Known about the structure:
The structure is a homodimer.
Chain A: H1 3-28, H2 35-46, H3 52-65, E1 77-78, E2 84-85, H4 87-109, E3 113-114, E4 117-118, H5 120-123, H6 126-144, H7 151-179, H8 186-212, H9 216-243, H10 246-249, H11 255-258, H12 264-271, H13 290-302, H14 305-323, H15 331-343
Antiparallel strand pairs in A: 1-2, 3-4
Helix pairs in contact in A: 1-3, 1-4, 1-15, 2-6, 3-4, 3-8, 3-15, 4-6, 4-7, 4-8, 7-8, 8-9, 9-14, 12-14, 14-15
Amino acid sequence: MSKNAREEAVLGAVRERREKVNAAIDEELPSKRPERLYEASRYLLKAGGKRLRPAVLLLTAEALGDVPPGSTDYREFPDLTGESIDVMSAAVSIEVIQSFTLIHDDIMDDDDLRRGVPAVHREYDTETAILAGDTLYSKAFEIMLRTGAPPERGMGAMQTLAETCTHICEGQALDVEFETRSDVVPEEYMEMVELKTAVLYAAAASIPAVLLGADDETVEALYNYGVKAGQAFQIHDDILDLTVPSEQLGKQRGSDLVENKKTVVTLHASGQGVDVEGLLDADDPEHVTDDEIEQAVSVLEDAGSIEYARGLADDLVAEAKAHLDVVPDNEAHRRLEQVADYLVERGY
Amino acid sequence: MSKNAREEAVLGAVRERREKVNAAIDEELPSKRPERLYEASRYLLKAGGKRLRPAVLLLTAEALGDVPPGSTDYREFPDLTGESIDVMSAAVSIEVIQSFTLIHDDIMDDDDLRRGVPAVHREYDTETAILAGDTLYSKAFEIMLRTGAPPERGMGAMQTLAETCTHICEGQALDVEFETRSDVVPEEYMEMVELKTAVLYAAAASIPAVLLGADDETVEALYNYGVKAGQAFQIHDDILDLTVPSEQLGKQRGSDLVENKKTVVTLHASGQGVDVEGLLDADDPEHVTDDEIEQAVSVLEDAGSIEYARGLADDLVAEAKAHLDVVPDNEAHRRLEQVADYLVERGY
């Protein structure tokens, strides 16, 4: 299948699920008193988002259940013994966690824009944004408790969710630590990316296996699919931050360079002798121009660093797809392969 | 029993459990990589705290199990059918949630001191404090998953924990909302206090009932014990904020007045015609002197507002104790009654 045809298939699959996911978000997280708190909590979820992680979760359920994609009610999804499970609430829970982390990350990074709209701490204020994130955090756990799965599996899903959240915090802490360290090695970066970003894809891919009653080997393989695909996603994100105009990104281009974030691109460039910290005018990194970003990116391109990162992301996608071997060969399985491809082919 | 004898009995009971709770906190939340994150997460827990909520949880388990206080290993506590439950991990989980809320509250209120040491966002920085709170949040859920209770009861405990956290956020949002509203009525204040403060006592008192396999009526009565005792605790806290010197409080005396927080005291005074917002020099509330606080408190005393709040707290304690009727009449039961008394008698 060509890249374009594949992208169309993936976007179609994501789009088909997005409307259902958005409706379910409204059901699981209704606006209520205190209104301002719930408005702020729902603000970013309402602002858009592809719903990639819920799509991965729902597709994984369909692949495991061996049902044609889109054929089966996600609220009454048959487990491997035919009992009914609400996998949609698990999908919403994962998206709610994603939204909580974005709200708190934007405070910590002092980012102004997200999904093309003001970050929550800009639209409201920092106090409200902290509290909105905290509210989504516990709501995600409440929502994950509503799958109707047998309690033992429900506990398994809660365990994965809680550990995932801890890992995300650890990854974010490492990301911040790396900003002030000059001796970060690629292995540390990959560990940071696994913790900060990839574990949420791993949760999305493995939790349906837990809920539907799959064996441990299947759960683990799907977890690893998510880890590898998620790492590839983050590396591609790092590339997009450098190469895509701000309007299209929905946030400032080159923000990672401005904030001195370590990425696979900058680590590779440093290894090639590029003075990465000197790429932007150190006196005034906040008011960097598009031209300065453009020039910095040229240097990284000349060092082969962007190409290197692309190759690494491609390798991770191949690894991710190999882990899907535990899943029956069906249409949803192929969609999950295409999702992994899409994660490193998407334009924004 | 005299007030002094009762206080001694309660403090003894709390103290006996505190060391075990502190050891368990170290076990459940060890220092690990990223070190700075876990240091910041443990900082406030290490700074002290009476461990009242864990004491309530452990005493409730002992009252329900009808065992002499302190006689039984909390890590292998017999449930109502004799199976072994780790109620200590539940106690740690509740204290970890308490610590997370204090860290984020201090950022939101921009408070400098907590437990006589700098608040986490002062000792570290705001970013680290947000992330430390987020880490404790998921850790509390991880720890609550370690009770070894049958999965159905474990799910019940997780449900209570998640809903409790949501309520705390809602209560905090109402508290902030009230700062800018002049039409807050006492019923709203009591609801806010239930959400912000009391539900964590309710979780502490009801979760052992869930874990040990008590019936719904018992769970609900213990929950209500916690709600009423927790509301009384908060009202007494509001009184202490006005009447106890800063050194003893571990934070600035009169901070609620400075921040224009609504309390039962100020709501009563407003009802008596006192211009509460005019009590402190509005131009410079940040640099208020001890004398100014002293004068403001005199006005509130003259209006009978502090006495009114004391009476309300006493009534709530009586209600709380009445809910304990579902629990066998034993030594731990009496300690739980004394704890409720202590919550409104403590000097700080």
